[in-house]
Structures are given as C-alpha cells and as structure tokens.
Fold this sequence. Notes:
Blueprint: E1 4-8, H1 18-28, H2 33-47, H3 58-66, H4 73-87, H5 98-107, E2 112-116, H6 121-130, E3 139-141, H7 148-158, E4 168-172, H8 175-184, E5 188-192, E6 204-206, H9 209-220
Helix pairs in contact: 1-2, 1-3, 1-4, 2-3, 5-9
Amino acid sequence: MTRLLLFDFDGTLYRGDDPFRFYAQAMAKRMTREDGVRYLDQVFAHLDGDTSVVAGDNWEAVVKLAEPIVPDHDVWQQAFLETREFMMSSECQLEVPPLLLDFLRQVRHRVEVVVASNSPEQAARPLMEKLGLTGYFDRIYSQANKPLGLVTIVDQVMDGKLLDPEQVYSVGDNYKNDIEPAMQHGWLTAHISPHGYFPGPSTVRGRSIEEVLPHLAIWALAS
C-alpha cells in the first residue's frame, strides 16, 4: 500500500524572513509615509517576535496588518509578485534546513514524496530549483488551491488505490490549508508554527521542521 508524504512549500521547506520584510516594504510604498512607517514597525515587531499577529503564516500576517490601510487585493497581488521576483535574486537569503535534506534523502524511495503549493507555477518551481529541492520530490503541484485542493491531490496521487488514512501524512505551516483538511479526513499531520500559533489539533506540532522530523522518520521508515 502506497504511503504519501505531502509537504507544503513556502514556510515549510525553507525559512527566512527576507521575503516577508520585502513584501511589507512593497506594501508600504502604496501607503502614506506616516502609515507606512507605522505599518512596517508592526510587521517587523511580529517577525522579530516582539509581538504576535494571529495569522496562519507570515504572508497572511503581512496582509492582515496592511488591510486596514490598503484594502485593495490588486495591490497585495502586485506586491506579492514583486516579492517573488526578489526571492529569485541573490539578495534574498533563504535556508533549507540540512536535517530536512538528510531526511528527504532517507525516505526518497520509501514513500511517495509530494509538494503542494498554492503559488503559481512560475513562482514555485523556479524557487524550488534555486533551493536545490526539485530532485527530492516525486511530484510537484503548484496552484494547488488548498485547502480543497489538498484532497484532490491525494486522490490523484493514490489513483484509486485503497487508502488507509494513516498512510497519508500532511506537513505544513498554514493550519487552514495544510492541517485542517487532512485532519478532517483522518490523515496524519505535522503543523509547524515558528510563532507558536496552533489553532487546532494536529498529530504532532513544533516551532520548526526539526522538531517534527523525528515523528515523520518513524512513520516513513517503518517496515
């Protein structure tokens, strides 16, 4: 019976605050100087851990703080696209945890390893290649339309095979997108939240990918 290990991409397979700081600065350019300074102070305080915004991830936190000042979705999208371009540059510092790479090498041919990102193909796949992640995954899904799309992806990968709920493990940092739909279907889940925002149940949870990897290894390497 196939076992499926399903990873989110942004905020799960790599880490670093450079994209969120750039995203906020791109938002601030669309504000008055006074609003922009106050807004950036709030975003940076959240990223630095001085305060905490209740949000599914840091992308959402940046938008949530901007929304009362700039409620225009088109502005958010333009700032996001600018951020994606920045993420492909040498100025943007991102880290793929070495222990994660070691884990992926160990499980590569033991389970089906899939990544599912809500980002468009032109944003997700080039960044995965830049980070050296592409070769570790059997399938890469962009524009995944999570949370609903998470179930669709599992159905596609399993291709009608008999499915024991505990044969699927979903790993991600956004509870609504990566964990909640998986829990509803009885799948195993690992929720990662650097700010310790855990709004609901999960099989395991941690503030970093390193904290949940031992649990994933026990499952993936079981005979």
